Amino acid sequence: MTTSKAAGPATPKLADFMCFAVYSANLAYGRAYKPILEALGLTYTQWIAIVALWEEDNQTVKSLGEKLFLESNTLTPMLKKLEELGYLRRRRDPGDERQVIVSLTEEGRRLREKGAQRTLVKATGMEADEFAGTQKAVVKLRDNLIKHAQA
Questions:
Q1: Helix, strand, or coil here: 18?
Q2: Digit-coded pLDDT (tens) for 40-49
Q3: 129 and 65 in one domain?
Q4: Could you tell me the pLDDT band of residue 89, with boundaries at 50, 70 and 90?
Q5: What are phi and psi of 90, to 5 degrees?
Q6: What's the sign of the alpha-carbon dihedral 16, 139, 75, 110?
Q7: Which of these, 44, 89, 131, 135, could form a disulfide with 126 (CB 3.0-4.6 Å)?
Q8: Residues 75, 149: one domain?
């Protein structure tokens, strides 16, 4: 006995799922970043924390966690490791001892000169305007999904 494996037009394929496209693109980004970040001695999560601090230095752990979508139980050990590596420092906020302020060291600022982001923008094969448009679309997708999940 044989069964028909013909998929009708209403049967979605894996390649048709947006979630799979985003997931697999994330995996591809991870593979592309791996040799660059290994040369720097960093993980991807450590890298994005440093990038967020380039954008806004001297911010609270809470603020940084919100930007990176990370809980403090994930963020705190990672920041401790970055401090051990000499890329940042943590200190209590003198105005509110409950808050910890994170700031880059000179060595952390110098990582920007390594050009990892420029390398991977080029690796996407997209023109600058296409890259920017795709990034904005993915951010909109993420934000809408967060709103949906919170509703």
A1: helix
A2: 899 999 999 9
A3: no
A4: very high
A5: -120, 140
A6: positive
A7: 131
A8: no
